[in-house]
Amino acid sequence: MSDKAKSSLDNLSDDDIFMSVKELKAYVSEIEMAKAKQSLEAQSRADKAKHELIQQLKSDEPISPERIRAFTLRVRAAAEAGKNELLIGRFPSELCADHGRAINMAEPGWPETLIGRPRQAYLVWKEKLQPLGYQLKAQIIDWPDGVPGDVGLYLTWK
Known about the structure:
By secondary structure, the chain is of the alpha+beta class. It has 6 helices and 3 strands; from the N terminus they run ααααβααββ. Strands 1-3-2 form a 3-stranded antiparallel beta sheet. It is elongated. The model has no long low-confidence stretch (mean pLDDT 88).
């Protein structure tokens, strides 16, 4: 410790240097409350962003030809890298009419539960890619608080 720091400590009384246990607990409590407030604010922002994403993805607007071309390039790049599947989309299970239950249970009619953009992606696969031999699979890829979270939609080929 430098002489300057030591002399500044010498000028302080024990009351200025030491906290009582009660004061220390109050201080720690304030810190924890501040962290919790920040966490709640962050969670609130994340919930708002997720809600906005869901609203955007509920659109039934067809997928543009430009996006389909860009997707085709991703498939080629994956195949060139030796892969035989590609995650083509990740979306909240709220974009399934049953919140992902049919996907989780691997029911044959799971595509009928899709809504919005995921439904549009399915229709592109059904019309253009399935006749060419590509498969489509879906699975729940995360489980926040033990409930289905996001769905992963995969294009596969062999």
